[in-house]
Write a structure and sequence with these properties.
The protein is an all-beta fold. It has strands at about 10-15, 25-30, 35-40, 45-50, 60-65, 65-70, 70-75, 80-85, 85-95, 95-105. It has 2 domains: about 1-75, SH3 type barrels (Roll), CATH 2.30.30; about 85-113, no CATH class. Keywords: Ribonucleoprotein, Ribosomal protein, RNA-binding, rRNA-binding.
Length: about 110
């Protein structure tokens, strides 16, 4: 699978599906499956059994389920609208050495993410 441009901690907006239009912060990224876990998005109900430890009571638990990365877009920090991401490659000289630095840039506004 191609490299994902969405990282942990990004603010994303759902562009398709039942949660369309909602925004949330990325909790985790699964690059092999191509899925992201977004805070407050794609909530599912799980029935859990009571365990032996203290505080492990049974019941109904609401938790987030992973959503495919193609169904979310990063929110532009300037316009607060979903945007695509491109990579800008710069050569920076530090201590007499040249180093290439890759920065994620919003396509909509051109600002760094």
């Amino acid at each position: 699978m191609a490299k994902m441009k969405i990282k942990k901690g990004d603010l994303v907006q759902v562009i398709t599906g039942p949660d369309k239009g909602q925004t949330g912060k990325v909790i985790s990224v699964d690059t092999e499956a191509g899925r992201v876990l977004v805070e407050g998005i794609n909530r599912v109900t799980k029935h859990t059994k009571a365990g032996q430890g203290a505080g492990r009571t049974g019941g109904i638990v609401h938790t987030e389920a992973p959503i495919h990365v193609s169904n979310v877009q990063v929110v532009d920090p300037e316009s607060k609208k979903p945007t695509r991401i491109k990579t800008r490659v710069e050569t920076v000289e530090r201590d007499g050495r040249s180093k290439t630095v890759r920065t994620r840039v919003s396509v909509r506004s051109g600002k760094d993410l």
